[in-house]
Specification:
By secondary structure, the protein is of the alpha+beta class. The protein is 29% helix and 15% strand.
Length: 82
């Protein structure tokens, strides 16, 4: 899915209001090995523009898998099929 088309076709969707900026921030924080908190960590425009997304695409997946630690410190996985 082309990111530009996604944003252009959902201009009025508040969930996508700062999607691209947040995506760049999340990617930068991972590349720089920092914890990402979009409310606290903000990168300069120059740094955000240094991120290049190949072919400006993101991909939809049919299954979301979430790996987590349970309250009794065991590892577990949940799957969600939208």
């Amino acid at each position: 899915m082309d990111i530009g088309m996604l944003l252009a076709s959902n201009v009025d969707d508040p969930a996508l209001e700062s999607f691209y900026r947040d995506l760049q921030g999340c990617m930068l924080s991972r590349l720089l090995d920092r914890d990402y908190d979009r409310d606290e960590l903000d990168f300069s425009l120059k740094k955000r523009r240094s991120i290049r997304i190949r072919k400006n695409r993101i991909y939809k997946h049919k299954v979301l898998r979430v790996h987590y630690t349970t309250y009794d410190m065991r590892r577990s996985t949940d799957s969600v099929n939208p």
